[in-house]
Amino acid sequence: MEFITDILLLSDSTLRISAPLILAALAGLCAERAGIVDIGLEGKMLAAAFGAASAAAVTGSPWIGLFAGILVSVMLALLHGYVSIHQRGNQIVSGMAINIMVAGLAPTLANAWFSLGGQTPLLDNGARFTAIDLPFAEALEDVPVVGALYSDLLSGHSLMTYLAFAMVPVIAWILYKTRFGLRLRAVGENPEAVDTAGISVTMLRYQAMVMAGVLCGMSGSALSTALGAGFIRDMSAGKGFLALAAMIFGRWKPVPTLLACLLFAFVDALQGRLQGVSFPLIGEIPVQFTIMLPYVITVVILAGFAGKMDAPRASGIPYEKDR
Amino acid sequence: MHVAPAIETRDLCKRFGDVKANDNVSLVVEQGSVHGIVGENGAGKSTLLKMLFGFYQPNSGDLIVNGEHISFSSPSEAMAAGIAMVHQHFMLVEPFTVLENIILGAEGQGLLKHAEIDAKAKLKGLEQQFGFDIPLDEPVSHLSVGQRQRVEILKALFRGAETLILDEPTAVLTPQECDQLFELVRLLKSRGKTILFVTHKLHEIMAVTDTVTVIRAGKVIVRTDTSSTSPEALAEAMVGSKISRAVTRADTSKGTPRISVQNVSAVSDHGHRALQNVSFDLFDGEVLGVAGVAGNGQTELLEILTGLRRVSEGSVSLTGNVINSANVYTDPIALRRAGVAHVAEDRLKSGVVASMSARENAILGYQRDADFSRNGLMRLAAIDQAANDYFESQDVRPRNPDLPIASFSGGNQQKLVIAREIARSPQTLIIGQPTRGVDIGAVTKIHDQITELRNAGKALLVVSADLDELMAISDRIAVLCDGKLVGIVPISEADERTIGLMMAGSPAATVDNVEQSQ
């Protein structure tokens, strides 16, 4: 019985942890499918987390926080777009610049505004996205199996978690079922073909960057106003890079990317559960090793299983009209 | 009743800085005709085309489409006026299906499902009318080059094109695919479409066009009916002076083979079998041409001969010594020193370093040699001297070795590469695509040089995608198909049809049978 409870708790935290990963990975997917490498996911996430936490702290509304988070992230996405699309700059440099800038700027601003040593004030529950119970969750609670799965596992997450999972089919639908999606995928493969078909490459790529900005903004907001209760220095902790890895492991496709995110989130949840647990023979594993686990798994997976062959062909290459 | 021409230009001019790329170009393309445009590389053909489909805007002059004065500010405006371009490099998204490629940009619907249903209905009509047979749901990456070209043409027709501009359409096709293209062009014409056929191959102009315009140095030199001209007259108009295409060959006698390839198999980068059981000899004093549709093992053949790839079976010997086999391997540096020079087929990838100066590129591959470096330091004066010598001997322009090699034209880059490779008078030259991206003046010079080397008793192996070129310079032509050597034909018995069939995989014997049964 305890074992089953363990599994349920583990699955529950997997879902919770996966939300910001999924949103960020989808952001990276939109950008790369349009031909722009977005290594600045990490920075945008952190900026959005800071924006959302600040706005929520000041106004007391998680919705205004979410809006602020998205706004900040979209602005940074457009900056990356300007460098990559208009200036034909190096996309890796631009992305890294955003990461470094945000890592320094966010705590500095937090300190200037709130004087809490680089944090934002702790948000009370009214200013956060708190757990919501799905309909009938209470009624079904005592039904065997269904109760455990529905009421305990699926119900009781924050709105941001449900939103993250809902975005997967939405993005998949946009990419594969709409005219806009066809053009977006085409521009990441062969921008010249798009250009000669009379469609603006520049416009499409900016649209993709806005999509990436919105999704990344949601991801950062989830971090500080749903999973956490305020902004802490470096709170994204490499999740932006993890999301990028999940997108590559998911071969730039929404559903496999979701599965990769769940895998990474599961390992993260597992490392949380393993802390302080004593194993037969080995004894207690030092906490430094368990924390390392998700990153080690990422390296192993990317080195061993992920190939480069499915990458959008024009990804990372600035488009120059007349060569 | 006179019908207005499909396209007419009057005194069209386009300048880039001080250079007049198009100088008072006047052109008349009648409705429902096939009009050829010929000219050398750099004569101004592409500039003219780009103005016709709205990519460039002319500095002066008039563009008249179907009797109406018009100016295009973008390709989509030209498309709206019924003018479509089939680019030399296809504008296709390879992982997409044929259908997705065709509707891209002309979907008409926000949702793909509806757009695809509408498109399929419209395409059915077009396919019947023009005899297309293309699997619409197949990814473009699975199609042959000829099929991809048909997708491009279908794409143009789907968008309602009345006038099709075909830019060097045969550059990538086998002779058989060319014939199919010509048939399609005739069919399009019979259905009332107008075709602008741009090429530098004169026999194609003679085969398929009604009227022809020759452009040289940005000016129209000749406008005439095809039936009242000849390839010789067109060639003269293109180049400006009578050129002799016949290469004089001295008799050279065969001795022992310089290079002997025995039962060689090799694996490509993708892990496919790229060469299968290939055997041939290369003798001193001959040019062995290697023909084949691109990607049938030519690249790997060049690589095993120059030490860039190991063979998996068989052996390659140089004057009797094995240089490449399953257990012997000689690297490119050692081969260069042993007198095997290499003119790489992909110049910008492996022949030069684009961002480095012409001077540095002039010694690339020989930088370790004692006359260019000592104790790890470059001997700049000697390098300077060598570069200047190459510039002089090959007439490389502009005469400035300080410029990055990328700023030279393809022809001048190639001239420098050839000068570099022959500077140490190697006995063997392995040459890939000697005149790819090279203008016609330089082509003649390079061909003459290859013949001179041959007459001086060197052994040359030349891989080329241009069959005309191989016919002009080779003593024997070897044909590769699917990694196998289909056969080797002496030049006296080679004609385009035979070689074409061999490129498609029919061995010479079968070709003979076909010949006899007809």
What does the model show?
The complex is a heterodimer of chains A (323) and B (518). Chain A is mostly helical and 323 residues long. Chain A is built from 13 helices and four strands. Helices cover 70% and strands 2% of the residues of chain A. The mean pLDDT of chain A is 90. By secondary structure, chain B is α/β, with parallel strands linked by helices. In chain B, helix 13 packs across helix 14. Chain B is globular, with a radius of gyration of 25 Å. In chain B, 43% of the residues are buried. The A-B interface holds A 176-183, 185-186, 189-190, 192-199, 313 and B 74-76, 79, 85, 87, 89, 91-96, 100-101, 103-107, 109-113, 115.
Tag the structure with descriptive keywords:
heterodimer; A: 323 residues; mainly alpha; ABC transporter involved in vitamin B12 uptake, BtuC; two-stranded antiparallel ribbon; two-stranded antiparallel sheet; 13 helices; 4 strands; 70% helix; globular; B: 518 residues; alpha/beta; Rossmann fold; 6-stranded mixed β-sheet; 18 helices; 34% helix; 26% strand; disordered C terminus
In short:
The complex is a heterodimer of chains A (323) and B (518). With 323 residues, chain A is an all-alpha fold. Chain A has helices spanning 2-33, 41-59, 62-86, 91-114, 137-140, 146-154, 159-177, 179-189, 191-196, 201-227, 239-249, 254-274, 287-304, and strands at residues 131-132, 157-158, 278-279, 283-284.
Q: Strands, helices and their partners?
A:
The complex is a heterodimer of chains A (323) and B (518).
Chain A: H1 2-33, H2 41-59, H3 62-86, H4 91-114, E1 131-132, H5 137-140, H6 146-154, E2 157-158, H7 159-177, H8 179-189, H9 191-196, H10 201-227, H11 239-249, H12 254-274, E3 278-279, E4 283-284, H13 287-304
Helix pairs in contact in A: 1-6, 1-7, 1-10, 1-11, 1-12, 2-3, 2-4, 2-10, 2-11, 3-4, 3-10, 7-8, 7-10, 8-10, 11-12, 11-13, 12-13
Chain B: E1 7-16, E2 19-29, E3 34-38, H1 45-52, E4 60-65, E5 68-70, H2 75-80, E6 83-86, H3 98-103, H4 112-130, H5 145-158, E7 163-167, H6 175-190, E8 194-199, H7 202-208, E9 211-216, E10 219-225, H8 231-239, E11 257-267, E12 273-283, E13 286-291, H9 298-305, E14 313-318, E15 321-325, H10 332-337, E16 340-343, H11 347-351, H12 358-361, E17 373-374, E18 377-378, H13 380-394, H14 410-422, E19 428-432, H15 440-455, E20 459-463, H16 467-473, E21 476-481, E22 484-490, H17 496-503, H18 508-517
Parallel strand pairs in B: 3-8, 3-9, 6-7, 7-8, 13-20, 13-21, 16-19, 19-20
Antiparallel strand pairs in B: 1-2, 1-4, 4-5, 9-10, 11-12, 11-14, 14-15, 17-18, 21-22
